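hiii, so i know i said id send this last week but things got crazy w the move. better late than never?? heres the sequnce for the chain we talked about at the cafe, plus the structure i predicted for it. fair warning i was half asleep when i ran it
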Amino acid sequence: MCTLIIGRDVIGPGTLYTAIKRLVAARLIEECEADAERRRCYRLTRKGRELGAEEAKRLSALVRAARKRGLLPSAS
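okay and structure toks below
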């Protein structure tokens, strides 16, 4: 059984493995050599890293806008 907890959200095995399949199909991640403790290991592809960087920039702009409007405390 596999469960992933992100913040307050719990992702069950069906959701997790479906997401992994989609990321592999989109060539955003690829399977890599597993270590002794894991059955499967994945890493970002170049495309996945680029898309992740773009998403990080978008989220950063969203946080700046929220701080500007007083919805979040300023970064100190």
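btw The first strand starts at residue 4 and ends at 6. thought thatd interest u
miss u guys!!
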